[in-house]
């Protein structure tokens, strides 16, 4: 059997899937924090498979499809089961429906992404990336969940709205930046993206993880704010263009 360079990124994608499975196993046994960490580890492998594909120059349609299948497991099924196990199972039918948001809307988002994919290099995503949605849920649970008491107070009540909002953001038209590649070309093209990522990483490290959810939530919120600014500016720009056309006609 001939082993090609494409095996390298596929290996990391396989580790991604395996981490998703381990997350489901741990959540089923009540080890919620461990389940969350396995999803985050799956996110690390998900990033590394793209890096390896670029290094080995082995990007392929097979890799894209395998990556999507892995993402459905690790960032769709695993977080859906985890939020259901943490609290949403206590609200019966509505809980099942809401808990399904990461899986259902994540699958829709990935299908749309694969259909619209042109080339293997991406500058931005349309809709919140499914790994970011899953990591946001994990950061929230790691921030507020206690192995002894579970979720209590307002964090318990906010879990369902958070799950719904993140699910809808995945299928929205809001654009989100890709992670910086730390290449010379990327540093010159998107310096603020690299700076923002670096600041966020430093905040998480120096706070010993206490600001993890705040940093992730800021990234998610930034996309919403930018979309709102564009929506406000668009009518003004359209009106300005119409005024310019009217002036040209009058002249």
TrEMBL record:
It is a multi-pass membrane protein. Its EC number is 2.7.8.8. The chain crosses the membrane at residues 7-28, 34-56, 94-115, 127-146, 158-176, 188-206, 212-229. The keyword Transmembrane applies. Keywords: Lipid biosynthesis, Lipid metabolism, Membrane, Phospholipid biosynthesis, Phospholipid metabolism, Transferase, Transmembrane, Transmembrane helix. GO terms for molecular function: CDP-diacylglycerol-serine O-phosphatidyltransferase activity. One of its GO terms (biological process) is phospholipid biosynthetic process. GO terms for cellular component: endomembrane system; membrane. Gene3D superfamilies: 1.20.120.1760. It holds the Pfam family CDP-OH_P_transf. It catalyses: a CDP-1,2-diacyl-sn-glycerol + L-serine = a 1,2-diacyl-sn-glycero-3-phospho-L-serine + CMP + H(+). The keyword Transmembrane applies. It is found in: Endomembrane system. Belongs to the CDP-alcohol phosphatidyltransferase class-I family. PANTHER family: CDP-DIACYLGLYCEROL--GLYCEROL-3-PHOSPHATE 3-PHOSPHATIDYLTRANSFERASE-RELATED, CDP-DIACYLGLYCEROL--SERINE O-PHOSPHATIDYLTRANSFERASE. NCBIfam families: pssA. This is CDP-diacylglycerol--serine O-phosphatidyltransferase. It comes from Candidatus Uhrbacteria bacterium GW2011_GWC2_53_7.
């Amino acid at each position: 059997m001939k082993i090609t360079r494409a095996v390298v990124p596929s290996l990391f994608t396989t580790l991604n899937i395996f981490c998703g499975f381990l997350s489901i196993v741990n959540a089923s046994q009540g080890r919620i924090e461990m389940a969350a960490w396995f999803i985050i580890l799956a996110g690390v492998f998900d990033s590394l498979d793209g890096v390896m594909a670029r290094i080995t120059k082995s990007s392929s349609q097979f890799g894209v499809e395998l990556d999507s299948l892995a993402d459905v497991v690790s960032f769709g099924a695993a977080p859906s089961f985890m939020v259901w196990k943490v609290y949403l199972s206590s609200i019966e039918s509505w809980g099942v429906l809401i808990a399904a948001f990461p899986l259902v809307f994540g699958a829709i988002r990935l299908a749309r992404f694969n259909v619209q994919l042109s080339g293997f290099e991406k500058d931005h995503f349309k809709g919140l990336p499914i790994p970011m949605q899953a990591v946001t849920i994990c950061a929230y649970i790691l921030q507020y969940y206690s192995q002894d008491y579970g979720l209590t107070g307002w964090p318990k009540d906010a879990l369902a709205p958070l799950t719904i909002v993140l699910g809808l953001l995945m299928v929205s038209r809001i654009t989100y930046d890709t992670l910086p590649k730390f290449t010379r070309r990327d540093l010159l093209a998107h310096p603020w993206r690299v700076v923002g990522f670096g600041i966020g990483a430093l905040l998480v490290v120096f706070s010993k993880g206490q600001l993890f959810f705040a940093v992730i939530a800021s990234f998610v919120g930034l996309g919403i704010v930018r979309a709102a600014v564009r929506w406000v500016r668009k009518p003004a720009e359209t009106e300005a263009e119409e005024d310019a056309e009217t002036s040209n006609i009058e002249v």
